[in-house]
Specification:
By secondary structure, the chain is mainly alpha-helical. The chain has one domain (2-69). Helix content is 63%, strand content 11%. The chain has one helix at residues 26-69; strands at residues 2-5, 12-15. The chain has a two-stranded antiparallel ribbon with strand order 1-2. A hairpin with a 6-residue loop joins strand 1 (2-5) and strand 2.
């Protein structure tokens, strides 16, 4: 048997044998999905920020070295 959690962009399914055998409650599943969504957003944002900081650092270093050499 599978329990589907609908209400997100796409339904997610968690497999259980019987209702009494479920290790997670519906509230726990929803919380886990919410945490998963936030972690994905934080990871993407962190990656973009790291890229931008690195880009600006390289540009600044290049500007300093080229500016002083000319």
């Amino acid at each position: 048997m599978a329990v589907g959690v609908i209400g997100e962009e796409k339904p997610r399914y968690f497999s259980i044998v019987r209702w009494g055998d479920a290790k997670l409650t519906l509230a726990q599943v929803k919380r886990r999905l919410r945490v998963e969504k936030w972690l994905l957003r934080l990871t993407a944002t962190g990656g973009v920020m790291f890229f931008l900081v690195t880009l600006f650092a390289v540009m600044a270093y290049g500007w300093i070295t080229v500016g002083f050499l000319n």
